[in-house]
Amino acid sequence: MKQRVIVTGGAGFIGSAVVRMLVPQGIEILNIDKLTYAGNLSSVEPVAHAPNYHFLRADICDADAMARAFAEFRPDGVLHLAAESHVDRSIEGPGLFLQTNVIGTYTLLEASRAYWAGLSPAERDAFRFLLISTDEVYGSLGPTGYFSETTNYDPRSPYSASKASADHLAAAWFHTYGLPTLKTNCSNNYGPYHFPEKLIPLVTLNALAGRPLPIYGKGDNVRDWLYVEDHARALWLALNQGRPGETYNVGGHNERTNLQVVQAICAILDALRPRPDGKPYADQITFVKDRPGHDARYAIDPTKIMSELGWRPQETFDTGLRRTIQWYLDNQAWWAPLRKAAEERRGLTP
Q1: Mean pLDDT of 216-238
Q2: In 10 A of CB 304, how many CB atoms?
Q3: Percent of the chain's residues with pLDDT above 90
Q4: Is residue 293 a part of any domain in this protein?
Q5: Which residues participate in catalysis according to the annotation?
Q6: What is the DSSP string of 23-66?
Q7: How far is it, in rounded angstroms, from Cα 248 to Cα 226?
Q8: Does the structure show a pLDDT above 90 at 117?
Q9: What CATH number has the domain bearing residue 44?
């Protein structure tokens, strides 16, 4: 088992879930995060004072900073989660996504390669670099079928194109240089500490505020939902037991249309926090102009990671969604300061 791990983007949504999981296990963690709008140190506050938790505020595009981080921390594994990840923002400003997701990944791979080359043979054999990616690199599915590890790439947005580029870089560094990289491609994550511009927290907080609940188009776009803590466990398994050069798809087998997701949120809020006027939250649903290039359906086949690494999700969508909404109801102090940035999200008003 890896004992010293660099987590890039460890103040973000998925990264912070990984950090909160690993630090209590005694793993030495170096969290490298630039702290952009979506990076929030309060997300790792539960473990921030542990002696085996370390934080470095740095940009993964800074080659000198990355070289120093590797030389001083001496990791035996890297979980690379740092990324710009919001499709709407990538449409409005693709340059930042190319810089962080492509150049940043290249810079981190080179820092890893230089560090790895100086290790002893046994240390080189044990070292792993795991790139965490997305199912969006595969494009859009029809009404049936699933993404597998051999599905052809077909990215449709600047975000997914930048992540596809990062995937190919990681694979190239394995085949060309022998750096022991591997990657995971996951479906839509949800859970506690999710930045409020994303669908589930956005709808939850808009509902509580009496605002419209925006749904793109007809709400018939389908996503496969994965509880973030289930994903964190999958990543740790992949880093420790996965084979270099391989890809592992991680999905929850929880397909829902966007409209179904919003309706489910409304039903849970009706039960947990009824509206003062007694009306259903679903009355606030508002359909807005569709996102450009909006993919119709994503769905992942997780057979490989389940059969080879023994991973299983512990949450269904129904149980995970209820846990998530209860967390937002109980943690206003975390999300309230982030609402202003979230309100910049496209499609918030009809």
Answers
A1: 95
A2: 18
A3: 87
A4: no
A5: 135-136, 159
A6: GGGT-EEEEEE---TT--GGGGGGGTTSTTEEEEE--TT-HHHH
A7: 14
A8: yes
A9: 3.40.50.720
